[in-house]
Amino acid sequence: MRRILIPILVVSLVVGAGGAYYLLRYRALETATKTARLMLTTALAIRGYINDRVQVDLPQFTAEKFHQATVPSFAAQTVYRQVQTGFPAYSYREPALNPTSPSDRATPFEVELINRFRADPDLPEIRGVRDSEDGSVFYLAKPIKITQETCLQCHGAPQRAPPSMVAFYGRENGFNWRLNEVVGVQTMTVPVEHELRGAVELAAMIAGGLLLVFFVTYWALTSSLNIVLVRPLVALARAADSASRKAEQEIVVPPSGASEIRTLGEAIERLRVSLSKAMDQLGASRPADKG
Predict the structure, then answer these.
(1) Are 261 and 237 in contact (CB under 8 A)?
(2) Exposed/middle/buried for residue 162 (C-beta within 10 Å: 0-12, 13-18, 19+)
């Protein structure tokens, strides 16, 4: 019995607790993905507004002054920095290997993302979970790829860039980009620490519940089987063994137990009686044969 129930317990724990954790984690990450996509779409909308409206209504570069607020990347990241003051785990960045602004220089983790996009030009996005100062966060990254010649007016050769931009940022950063080159990534992070911890806690509760159910079931099964089957069979086996040694010994059918046990005891008793009668008849016929 124990050899059967223990494997059932192990399988139940793996399927129940493990399956629950997988489903809860999957649901948490899917929710985080939807949130990250929504926020990233908002950032892209800010970039599009700056690019399509502000740069048209207000020239981005003049010979006298560089208008940093009219740069789409700067505008989008500035808005999300304001969001991040109240929600630190939410962040939006546009890091690059050779950024115009030093604050946009890629970290080692972001460099790895950029290299993965460079190695696979058809890769649309990368997502996953990583640890940060604010706990576990979900990240969604998309490549920044130079697809328009107009981008090279500011990020091609330094001598082609607007003088006010060169005066503001210098001639060392954000230049010599090439067409169709992945130069950076857009990354959006959202917190998932609470959701992932909740998945672990709920899976642990399910495992505890399964253990409790198993022990109650184990106690109920072993107790009932011991009363209904094991004890009657042991008593019947002893009575049958005793009757086999002494033909006159009557088989005592156990008063409790399954009906099949009582039926078996009665059948053995009839067999004993029949065997006893046959032995008596065989013993009575032997003197007549000798005469």
Answers:
(1) no
(2) middle
Contacts of residue 74, Cβ cutoff 8 Å, sequence gap at least 6 = 68, 101
Task: DSSP letter for 103, please.
Answer: G
Across the range 113-139, mean pLDDT stands at: 91
Residues 193 and 29: beta-carbon distance below 8 Å: no
**0.85 surpassed by pTM:** no
Q: Are 8 and 117 a contacting pair, CB within 8 Å?
A: no
Q: Please name the helix (run of DSSP H) or strand (run of DSSP E) that holds residue 138, with its range, or none.
A: strand 135-145
DSSP for 201-214, written as a single string: HHHHHHHHHHHHHH
What integer pLDDT is reported at residue 291 of this predicted model? 45
Q: Is 243 exposed, middle or buried (0-12, 13-18, 19+ CB in 10 A)?
A: buried
Identify the burial level of 155 via C-beta atoms within 10 angstroms of its C-beta, where 0-12 means exposed, 13-18 middle and 19 or more buried: buried
Question: In this predicted model, what pLDDT tens digit does every residue of 87-102 receive, in sequence order?
Answer: 888 899 999 999 998 8
User: In this prediction, what percent of the chain has a pLDDT beyond 70?
Assistant: 79
Hey, what are 84's tokens?
């991040």
